[in-house]
Design goal:
heterodimer; A: 201 residues; alpha/beta; Potassium Channel Kv1.1, Chain A; 4-stranded mixed beta sheet; 8 helices; B: alpha/beta; 4-stranded parallel beta sheet; 9 helices; 13% strand; elongated; Skp1_comp_POZ (chain A); S-phase kinase-associated protein 1 (chain A); SKP1 (chain A); SKP1-like (chain A); ubl conjugation pathway (chain A)
């Protein structure tokens, strides 16, 4: 059954100065409708593009890839952050930055407390972390989960199948049997498009 | 909250790259190279993730140094060597790192914790690294240990 929620009061910040008179409605794939203001619209390129292109009046913009249980926290997140300063563009290769501290790993632990509590509601096991990732701090959370992990751990954490190509060269048992046979000296022929067996993993 | 059928591999490449760019290159390679025969492995092989490798950060940010370095020596570096243009190393592992593969595009080397007494031998005429220094390296940065500066 469709429900209508006015999420404009869920913001934890004092955002009245940015509130505009224009609001639009969005609807999840299971019929849940939210009325959002322009501050929220600006944070979603998808919704912004749709609202610019479509003048649906009071008809909600359909979001066929989002279900209500995910749309509700997304709206809550956008309401909380709608007055945040715009993020700086990502530096594509700051490993080349000569001023970067050699010992300092890239950081993705600078997630504010509100965001940390927000993201705790979503898990890999339920798959909801990936549902929310498009709109939130999920990227940093996933990066934190991967940092320092071996590929075998990442494979297990995210249920990634090994799917050995060809003659099963990459099957785990094949890898174990080849441990110690990978060349450790100069080898210019070691590159190639398909993965080589990993004796350490 | 209801179960979802969305998995990591359902994310578009654009989003996966966004995640990976929040990691150091060595973390991307350690976590994803050889993880599967598909997209994640291919993404990890992108040149951007092996152009500059800071192998010092491994030593200083983990307690499992030996097993991680072994994996880099035996598996990762022999596969991505062609992409590497800049290496950041410590004298302790420098010789092994530089000899484990042929980095044909390597031109920049940063040696951290360089100690004159122990490390000058790498620049001697009979050094196994002399050919690399002579024919490839166009930019060499030496970061001297604080004790030697005093």
């Amino acid at each position: 059954m469709a429900t209508t929620t006015d999420s404009s009061n869920t913001s934890a910040t004092t955002t009245t100065e940015n509130a505009t008179s224009k609001t639009i409605k969005i609807q999840s794939n299971d019929g849940e409708t939210h009325e959002i203001d322009q501050g929220v619209v600006e944070q979603s390129s998808t919704i912004k593009t749709l609202s610019d292109l479509m003048d649906l009046g009071d008809v909600p913009i359909p979001l066929p890839n989002v279900k209500g249980s995910i749309l509700t926290p997304i709206v809550e997140f956008c309401n909380y952050h709608k007055n945040d300063p715009k993020p700086e563009p990502l530096d594509d290769d700051d490993d080349d930055d000569p001023n970067k501290d050699i010992y300092e790993p890239k950081r993705s632990d600078d997630i504010c407390e509100w965001d940390q509590n927000f993201i705790k509601r979503f898990t890999v096991q339920e798959g909801t972390l990936f549902d929310i990732i498009m709109a939130t701090v999920g990227c940093k959370t996933i990066a934190n989960m991967v940092r320092g992990k071996a590929s075998s751990e990442v494979r297990e954490m995210f249920n990634i199948s090994y799917d050995p190509p060809g003659e099963g060269l990459n099957a785990p048992n094949a890898i174990e049997s080849q441990a110690g046979t990978v060349p450790t000296t100069q080898d210019t022929s070691a590159t190639g498009p398909s993965p080589q067996p990993d004796p350490m993993n | 909250m209801n179960q979802s059928s969305v998995h990591l591999l359902d994310l578009p490449d654009e989003m996966l790259l966004n995640i990976l760019k929040k990691l150091d290159n060595v973390d991307v390679l350690y976590a994803l190279l050889g993880i599967d025969s598909g997209r994640l492995n291919s993404l990890a092989r992108e040149e951007t993730f092996s152009r500059t490798l800071n192998l010092v950060s491994i030593v200083h940010n983990t307690t499992m140094v030996d097993s991680i370095l072994d994996r880099f020596f035996n598996y990762i570096l022999p596969q991505v060597h062609g992409n590497v243009k800049c290496l950041i190393v410590e004298p302790t592992f420098m010789e092994r790192i530089l000899l484990v593969a042929h980095y044909q595009n390597l031109t920049e080397l940063k040696i951290i914790n360089f100690q004159r007494d122990n490390s000058l031998r790498y620049f001697a005429d009979d050094s196994s690294l002399r050919h690399i220094f002579k024919t490839q390296i166009t930019k060499l940065d030496l970061f001297v240990k604080d004790r030697e500066r005093e």
